[in-house]
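Researcher: Final request for today, and then I'll write up notes for the group meeting. The sequence and the SMILES for zinc ion follow.
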Amino acid sequence: MKLFDAHNHLQDYQPKTRLSEVLRQAAEAGVELMLCNGTSPGDWEQVLVLAAENKGVIPFFGLHPWFLKEGPPGWLEGLESFLLKVPSGVGEIGLDGGQNATSSARQEGIFTAQLRLAKKLGRPASLHCVKAWGRMLEIIKEEKPGPFMFHSYGGPAEMAAEFASLGAYFSFSGAIIDQKREKLRRALLAVPAERLLFETEAPDADAPGWRAGPAGLVEVISAAAAILGRPAEELASLSWANGNKFIEDLTVSVRKEAP
Ligand SMILES: [Zn+2]
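Model: Predicted protein-zinc ion complex:
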C-alpha cells in the first residue's frame, strides 16, 4: 500500500539525526511521497536539500502567515528563484485570523502575491487557513488559482462544496483521530472523495496519544476510514491517486521554463 503525506515540515526535526530514523519508519509504513513545506526564506534551502537527498520528498516553498516579519525585501523574487530550481509547489501560505495574526491587509497582500506566482509558474499551492474562511473564499474566487489544497482543513462542512467547485483539495491531519473534534468529522464527511487528502504535519502531532511523524499517516487514514465507513486500503489508494493528481503538472512546468 503506497501512502501520500500531503503536508509536513521535515526540515523542523531537531536534532537532524532524528530525521533519518523518521524517514526509515515512514518508508516501512509505506509512505512513498511527502510534500515538505517551507515556511520562510530561512528554511527554503533546507527543504531544497532534503528533497534532493530523499526520493519521494517533494519540496514546497512559501512564506507562512506566522512568519511575515521574515519576508525581507526581495523575498518574492527569492521565492521564484527557488521554485525555478526544482519541480516544486508553493506553500505553506495562507491567512490566519488567530492569535499569531499580523494585520490582515499585509497578510492578504503576501498571500495573494504567492498565489499569483503559483499560477504564473503552473505550480500547486498548499494553503493554511485559520479563522479567515470568508476572506479566503473571496480571494480564491478573485484569483482563480491553479491546483490548491487546504492543509489540515478546519473550515465549515458547509463551505466544502463551494471550495471544491473552485478546485480545492482538502487534506485532513491527525486531528481527526481526536473523537472530540466533531466539526472536523463533519467536514470530512462533506468533502468530495476525489478531493480528499491526508497529512501528518510532522513533526507536529495534533492528536493526543497519536504516533506522530509521516509514519503516523497510517493512523490518520484508519481514523478517516472509521468516520467515513470505508476500508482504510480504499482511502489509502484514493488519497494516493488524488495526491498524484494534485502534483501532476510539476515536472511539466519545469520543462516548459527551461531555455
Ligand atoms: Zn504546516
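Model: Residues 22-257 form a domain with the TIM Barrel fold (CATH 3.20.20.140). The CA atoms of residues 234 and 252 lie 29 Å apart.
Researcher: Thanks, that's everything.
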